[in-house]
Structures are given as C-alpha cells and as structure tokens.
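User: Could you write out the 3D structure of this protein bound to S-adenosylmethionine? I've included everything you need below.
Assistant: Certainly. Input first, then the structure.
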Amino acid sequence: MTEIRDNFNRTFKTLRVSLLNTCNLACVYCCCGNEDSKENYRDAKSKALSATELITLIRMLHERLNLTTVRLTGGEPLLYKQLPDLVAGIRQLGIPELKITTNGLLLEDMAPALKEAGISSINVSLDAIEPEVYYLMSRRHDLSRTLKGIETAKHLGIDVKINSVVMKGLNDSQIMPLLQYAFDRDITIRFLEIMAMGHLHDSADKHFFSQEEILALIETKYSVLPLPRKPASTSNYWQTAGGHLFGIVANESEPFCSDCNRLRLDAYGNIYGCLSSNSPISIREADQQSLDGGLMEALAQKQSVKFTGSTLSMLHIGG
Ligand code: SAM
C-alpha cells in the first residue's frame, strides 16, 4: 500500500481524538460563554460516537497510518461515560503512546481507573494558580479540584504535564507562580501562545503574549538553556540551571507546521488535517478506499508555513 504523504514529506502519526464537544469549564479562549445550555449538551452527547465506534475508527486509522500516539481530548474527555472501556480498547490496538488532555476537574476520582486502563501520560490545563484569576479564565470556581487531580495523578506515578494558555491582561501575572508550582512538584509546564480560534478569530491579537515575552519574564529569575527541538514537537523546551524543564508552544511566533504529523478526529467522526481548517471530512461510514481519500484530503488541509486561524473553537475540533 502506498504511504500517505504530502510534498513536504508529512504524514499522520499522532491522532488527537475529541470525545465530546462539551466541557465542565467555559474557558475564555475556547467558549464565548453561551455554549453550555442543557439542550446543546444533550444534543452533543446523543450524536457523539460510542466507544465501540471510536475504537473501530481508530483501528482503521492505525492499520493505514501505523500511529505512534493517540491523545484523547475534547471538550472535556473525562466527561465521556465509557472512558475507561475506551482507553482499554485503544490500548489493545498496540499504539505505543496513549495520552489524555484534561482540565483535571474529575481527575482525582478517575486517575486510578485511567492508570489501570493504560493511560501513560496526562496533560492538565491550568491557566492560573490564584483562584480569582482561575475564575477569570475558566468562568468556574474549581481550582482546588484541578489541583487535587494533579496531585493524585502524580502520586499514582502517571507522567503529568501542565499546559497554560497565556493571555495578556488576563493571566500573564500567573506565569511565574505557575512555574514555581510546577518546579516545586517536578512537573514539566508548557505555556501556550493564544491562537486565533473560534470567537477569538478576529480578536486574539489584543491578548497575544509572545514566546519572547514569556521567556524574558522567566529569565528575570532563572538562567535557562534552550534544548534541541524534537521532530514534530509542538513545543520548544528550556532547562533551568536547577535542572527544571519548561516549554513554550509558540504557534504564532515560531510555527511548527513544516513537520506537523497530527490528525484530528472529532466527536462525530470527522477528521481534520489542521487546526486552521474548519472543513470537516466525515469518515464515520468510511471503508478502506474512502478512508484513503479522506486522509489525502486532510493532508491537503495542512498549512505549509503557519497556522492561519479558524472560526472553529478547539472545543469542537479538539485541543
Ligand atoms: N478540556 C480539556 C482541557 O481543558 O485540557 C481538553 C480540551 S482543551 C480544548 C485542550 C487544550 O486546548 C487546552 O490546553 C487549552 O488550553 C487549549 N486551547 C483551547 N483554545 C485555545 C486557543 N484559542 N489558543 C491556545 N490554546 C487553546
């Protein structure tokens, strides 16, 4: 079988699966604030793929692409009712890395079952360490639950990383306290430049806080050394003189499209080759032939230079 590759020699090796496009937070970069009506929630849940359907699609994709990583995301993946069964089912497909990105609210309760089912690593989104700023970013008062989730997962020996989206004027005051929190617990933290997605499509600029600004702030307290970037990585990493690691996902100031190997599958069985695309390609009913066509179409969605923005929020396409 011919390999699926584009003219830039890119293929798909990492699959990000959005399990649900609903969330128990309403973060200001993801939601405009009106999304969580009960009706939307019921509708989204009733159309979402079951664990059996998801495993079938992931198996087909793996057979064609020889995936190295599956990351479960959303929406909030820990709200997905059949999550431990799904994780165990994907584990059996033999894909080396199976990871989750979560806001951590339900992690304290679910971490043992996730570990048991075979999750190797968890990214927790945490945009603030002060309760008022956490509320400003997430529109919910749940900081202590997220922190307990992080501690529990770490205690169980799961590899935990923290992701923090930085928005100028909203939570840039949290960079240093978050860094300290992570360093104290030996957790790798990554700061993300804001992306022009969803309702922020035309206004992300005013909150943009660049890699250069983040680094300059960190260097007021720490001396840091850049580490070589790993192929297809979303993040640049640095090491402090004390041996702590931190990263910056510089979507805007240092784009990483040239070797991007990510494919996204949303909760309804649509694939996307790029976050810049808001054109869903359905593979819900695909056979081998139409799957190949869909994958070629998704590969053609990849940008050659940089992310160009999208009117679709990460809530739908999966972060
Ligand atoms: N609910 C889960 C969580 O909070 O981690 C998973 C979904 S969330 C959409 C996944 C990631 O997308 C989070 O790390 C979030 O910070 C990031 N994200 C969402 N919208 C973003 C934007 N406009 N710019 C940068 N990062 C964004």
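The chain has ten helices and twelve strands.
User: Perfect, thank you.
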